[in-house]
Amino acid sequence: MVAARTADTRPQIDEALVRRLVDTQFPQWAGLSLELLSPAGSDHVIYRLGEELSVRLPRHVGAIGQARKESRWLPRLAPHLPLAVPVPVGVGEPDFGYPWPWAVSRWLDGEVATVDALGDSSGAAVELARFLAALQRFAPEDIPAGNTGEDLTGRPLSDWDGATRAAIAEVDGVFDTTAVTELWNAALSAPGWDRSPVWFHGDFHTGNLLTTDGRLSAVIDFGGLGIGDPACDLMIAFTLMSANSRAAFRDALGVDDATWTRGRGWALATGLNAYTSYAAVDPRVAAQTTRQITQALIG
Question: Partners of 199 in the beta sheet?
Fold first, then answer.
């Protein structure tokens, strides 16, 4: 999801800190090795713990709810999903100067999905559509009453209007800002979700998909998990897929025109936000978000 920019108040995280946290709070794993996973994304520092576990520590305040959210909801969702998802085994508490909850989960083998490997694969596109359909079928009312808190409430695309228009102004000369503005206006004007709220992943892009032997194997990083309009998850159609596989994905998921337009808006907003935040310092992000923005414009 799009995140507001805030001052960098990231705590210092190193192996010595992680070792102390694990050894004191989970002594049953004190003898296991630690290996830093790099790159691990912008939200967490990740260490592999032994052969079968991983430790994830939020880097910034925007990610601090993920450990408890995944621990609470993923065990309930996982049996209904056709791809593997993280298996939480413990939530650590703040200590030794580290200020936030952190997580221990089962290690998931696999490589991060890439456009080169899967972008033209209609089979992969249909498999992702089936994953989202299964997620959406697990209705919020299937969860025991009283457990759906505010942290699961989906926010409307309009909440990001100011930040997105600021980003559009910032990329003038890099992208066709007339076309970008037209798409953004169309996404905001599209009819909203008028059916019952459904589950969405919330950050459904290539970096959160794993492959094994060239096939999709797992979906990770459910920090944006929520209930509401599923249009945000259509981001994957523009971060991973080509025009042909995107058409197969849309057909398999049965996406109406209004939801598709809102999905293009989510892809545009998240792409612009990441581009203006990271492209100048990370060529990989620059390339990925440039593709995301241009594919969203194509539709």
Answer: 227
Per-residue model confidence as pLDDT tens digits over 34-92: 999 987 677 899 999 999 999 999 999 989 999 999 999 999 999 999 999 999 999 99
Q: What are phi and psi of 10, to 5 degrees?
A: -70, 135
DSSP string, the chain: ---------PPP--HHHHHHHHHHH-GGGTTS-EEEESS--SSEEEEEETTTEEEEEESSGGGTTHHHHHHHHHHHHGGG-SSB---EEEEE--BTTB-S-EEEEE----EE--HHHHTT-HHHHHHHHHHHHHHHHS-GGGSPTT---GGGBPPPGGGGHHHHHHHHHHTBTTB-HHHHHHHHHHHHHS----S--EEE-S--SGGGEEEETTEEEEE---TT-EEE-GGGGGGHHHHT--HHHHHHHHHHHT--HHHHHHHHHHHHHHHHHHHHHHTTT-HHHHHHHHHHHHHHHH-
pLDDT digit string, tens, across residues 275-292? 999 999 999 999 999 999
pTM exceeds 0.85: yes
- For residue 58, the cross-strand partners are 44
Cβ distance 163 to 2 under 8 Å? yes
